[in-house]
Amino acid sequence: MRPVMPIFKNAVLEVERKFVCNPHTTSIIHANRGFPRLPNLIFKGQHTFEDIYYDLNEVCFSHGVWVRKRNGTWQAKIRQGGDFTNSQFDEIDGAEDVAALLQKLHVDASIKAENFGLSELARFVTRRDAWRVADVYEVVVDSTDFGHSVGEVELQQLLEPDNKDDGTTAVQMDARIKDFMLKHSWAFPSGKVVGKLSAYFEWTRANKTS
């Protein structure tokens, strides 16, 4: 899926692959004793953030767009390819660009209204452990306040407004991540992976029926 709107100023192409986590994942990555070792592993620390996701009559979701506030800052992720496990997004930050995106999607939202007049869909807090690997890869392990954990390996690239890429860059970045994870499979085990937002919806459905 290619975007139906032009790339915004300072948009970032974000390509990520998720991996299965268990209670020992963080300590395994920290120890870095597998073969081959993760090159130039740098721990960037642990921090906590709150995500609030919004939509209006599922217009954003239907266009492959996720709109959220992270610790009070408006962000939007525009899907360019992949799926819920291995994803490719353009990501924009700031209320001004998010408001412009909503207008391009013809969302019936008021730019001056609180939260643009959107409805809250999900709200949860995440504790994140993050590493830099080989000077280019971002590796994170996320643990949510509703009991779900998932890991991600990510590459990012700043996009220029006149970017004419046909999706080749994202495919190449995804291939780099895949090869990196296969080479270090001891740190990134395979298995059924569920993203945070999908897990949140499953959790809320289960709690409604219990």
What does this protein structure show overall?
The protein is α+β, with helices and mostly antiparallel strands. It contains five helices and eight strands; from the N terminus they run βαβαβββαβββαα. It has helices at residues 25-31, 59-62, 95-104, 168-183, 196-209, and strands spanning 12-19, 42-55, 65-70, 73-82, 86-93, 119-133, 137-144, 149-158. The chain is globular and about 55 Å long.
Secondary-structure-derived class: alpha+beta
Span from first to last CA?
37 Å
Rg calc: 18 Å
Question: How are strands sequenced across the largest beta sheet?
Answer: 1-5-4-3-2-6-7-8
- Residues in β-strands, percent: 35-45%
Are there runs of 5+ residues with pLDDT below 50, and where? 1-5
Annotation, overall tally of beta strands:
8
Mean pLDDT: 90
The helix/strand series, from N terminus to C terminus, equals EHEHEEEHEEEHH
Give the helix tally: 5
- What form results from the Cα inertia axes? globular
Question: Biggest sheet, in brief?
Answer: 8 strands, antiparallel, barrel
Helix amount:
10-25%
* Quaternary structure of the protein: single chain
